[in-house]
Automatic annotation (TrEMBL):
It comes from Methylobacterium thuringiense. The chain crosses the membrane at residues 50-73, 85-103, 109-131, 143-164, 176-196, 217-241, 253-271, 283-302, 308-331, 338-359, 371-393. PANTHER family: 2-NITROIMIDAZOLE TRANSPORTER (PTHR23523:SF2), PTHR23523. Keywords: Membrane, Transmembrane, Transmembrane helix. This is Transporter YycB.
């Protein structure tokens, strides 16, 4: 990741863009294990605690809902703390939430999910503003790299949590708490940058953020971000259960879900990088969502021999769509302040919308006892996301849409 830090004071020694980029990727790695590590253990948690199907749906929904609430704090964090310190506050909250889960029991599990979700939402909203400020000339590549790191973290949370539980032999709480270690590393890795660039953060905060609530383009970006995220969180929270429903054991289902999660990484890097070079991103968005639906249906109902290829396609397309969501935030904004405001709206409202996906998916499964109705819901969400994406992918910027291309 290359870039310049034009907002720093002359007497402030800038850090290497490479070091900043590596620190960003380390932060990004920790923005999903708090969410993806629960799904592989959900069956065991339900069996041990007696959690109902509705409670399990609420557990998979809560962190996503809190992502939206944390994202809504983005503009205030930019004004009061600046982008860099705001990211530090977010990753510190993730650390606290992960530690809470180690106490065991449902209250600590739900509380940890909420606190970690708030931190993920806050840090996630501020990263596009940082990219627009420091890496604006390489927005697609920079977004792809940190989204790739985020997807690697998602895959690690899905694939390694069950082996951690087996290796530790201390139950699900200890396995979940182990994810606090990389979060602690991220806190220490990002702290020097939060301290080193107060002037850059303040200069972004001083720029007035545009009003977006009457902008159709902003709503389209938010809708696409939320709906594609809803599909991803259904995948994170319920794919292991779907796979177990077709006869796989918990370990095999976890590994297959991990294949899907890890396959997000190349998609998150390649699709946004390529799409950012195109005149608009509409074709990439529709193609990515169509691939997600086809792969998910294959995993749920298709021949067993196709499960591994389908998992790879699902992950690649899911990571690509998430990267596209973040990329259109950067591309549709005029400057760092605009990117921060659009990111807060798109991710704040978007994640609140996204939280309905896994909750509705769980309720649909509870109502029918099967996966047909949930799969239909998954497909309908993808269609709605494509409709929003056709608007969000246009070659316009916020403030320009009302006047036409």
């Amino acid at each position: 990741m290359n870039g310049s830090m034009t907002d720093t004071k002359p007497d402030t020694k800038p850090h290497s863009p490479v070091l900043i980029g590596l620190a960003v990727m380390l932060v990004a790695f920790n923005l999903r294990p708090a969410i993806t590590s629960v799904g592989p253990l959900l069956t065991g948690i339900v069996a041990e605690t007696g959690l109902s199907a509705t409670g399990a749906a609420a557990l998979t929904t809560l962190p996503v809902l809190c992502l939206g609430l944390g994202g809504a704090l983005g503009p205030a964090a930019i004004r009061r703390l600046g982008v860099d310190a705001g990211i530090l506050a977010g990753i510190a909250a993730v650390l606290v939430g992960l530690l809470l889960r180690g106490f065991g029991g449902l209250p600590a599990l739900f509380a940890g999910a909420a606190v970690a979700g708030l931190g993920i939402g806050l840090a996630g909203v501020l990263l596009p503003a940082l990219v627009k400020r420091d890496f604006s000339r390489q927005a697609g590549r920079a977004t792809g790299l940190y989204t790739m790191a985020l997807c690697v973290g998602a895959g690690a949370g899905t694939g390694l949590t069950v082996p951690f539980e087996h290796a530790l032999g201390q139950g699900w709480a200890a396995a979940l708490a182990l994810w606090s270690l990389p979060a602690l590393v991220a806190v220490f890795a990002w702290a020097p940058f939060a301290k080193a660039r107060p002037a850059a953060a303040a200069s972004v905060a001083r720029r007035p953020a545009p009003s977006l609530w009457r902008e159709p383009l902003a709503w389209q970006v938010a809708g696409f971000m939320g709906l594609q995220s809803s599909l991803a969180y259904i995948q994170f929270g319920w794919l292991p259960a779907v796979l177990q429903g077709r006869g796989l054991d918990a370990l095999d289902a976890g590994y297959l879900a991990a294949v899907a999660a890890i396959a997000q990484a190349p998609g998150a890097l390649l699709l946004p990088t390529a799409a950012a070079r195109a005149r608009d991103q509409r074709g990439w968005i529709v193609g990515g969502l169509a691939a997600m639906v086809a792969a998910f249906l294959t995993l749920a109902f298709g021949p067993e021999i196709l499960t591994v290829p389908a998992a790879i396609v699902l992950g690649f397309a899911s990571g690509g769509c998430f990267g596209l969501g973040l990329t259109v935030i950067v591309l549709r904004a005029r400057d760092a302040a605009g990117a921060g405001a659009l990111s807060a709206m798109a991710q704040g409202f978007g994640y609140a919308l996204a939280s309905l996906g896994p909750f509705g998916f769980g309720l649909a499964h509870q109502a029918t006892g099967g996966w047909g109705l949930p799969a239909l819901l998954f497909s309908a969400i993808a269609v709605a996301g494509a409709i929003c994406g056709l608007g969000a992918g246009r070659a316009q910027q916020v403030g320009q849409a009302a006047r036409g291309p």
